[in-house]
Model the fold of this input.
Amino acid sequence: MEQTNALDSMVHEIAQFLAHPNDYRAVLILLFSILFAYWVSHFLAKAIIRVAQKVAVRSDSETREKRILMYRQVETYLSVAVAAVRAIVVAIVAYVTWRILTPEGSANLGGSGAAAIGASAFFIVFAGATLGLLLRDITAGATMIIEKWFNVGDFIKVEPFIDMSGVVERMTLRSTKLRSLSGEVIWIHNQQIQAVHVTPRGVRVMAVDVFVRDLEKGRQAIMEVASAMPTGPTMLARSLKLHEPEQWGEGVWRLTVIGEVPPGREWLMEQYFVNAINKLDEDAKKSDKLLALEPIARWADPVADKRFRRAVRLDRHSKAS
Done:
């Protein structure tokens, strides 16, 4: 019964508002004020964007890891500030205009008072439909920023989506903009992000262990194959590196090749490079074959190796039975 009375009262207030032509002018003044605020905030946002672009240039040219992380965090905060400045300016102008239209101490609710009632009723209906979604986005975005889930410039994969990944180009309290490896632009509401996979430095470190019978011939053949591998931002991040050889049994040497690839380009090491190594013995006789065993492709991230060394607890004093 109380809800029905409240609804009837709201409808009555809206009807009273529509019955006063002068109130339309008050609402128009309020709308024009908000548009003016948005116009002012647009220029302020452009100024912040220019600063963010300069920070991005400094970040791309920096070589020290800590400095790169600092610049990316600043770039993330500036990206969020763009949306925050726009919202604050619009809110301030709207509030000032509202106070002018509805001065305190007004004896009656006619004129601008009716405009206030009508606009309030409209706001309640509007807020019920959209404000809840907006607040959930803002809450999720603020949480990710405070906890430093990721920064602008990081490569992330978004859960629970199967194939949503890319470089973070922009992040606000409401949404996140990604650029995929294929060049597609992806916008996602922050409340839809349940978890993220962040790739450190934007590359994945992989290794291929090659087992050869002749150390010098194996080293030379591997370097020839490695020199033909494509490099670039979306291919191998840099030229392949050959680690120091390790003797692997009698007459067998293990040569480890390290490569850094962006997410989605792991096949360059797992398939392309491994297949090229296998072809070294394609036409060789059995007695002249260079490879003693099949090459092994594996992950080789140094930080992951260090963490798993702590996680995998083996008794060093135990002997194999």
User: Anything to note?
Assistant: The domain at 203-311 is CATH 3.30.70.1710 (Alpha-Beta Plaits). The longest helix spans residues 21-61. The chain has seven helices and ten strands.
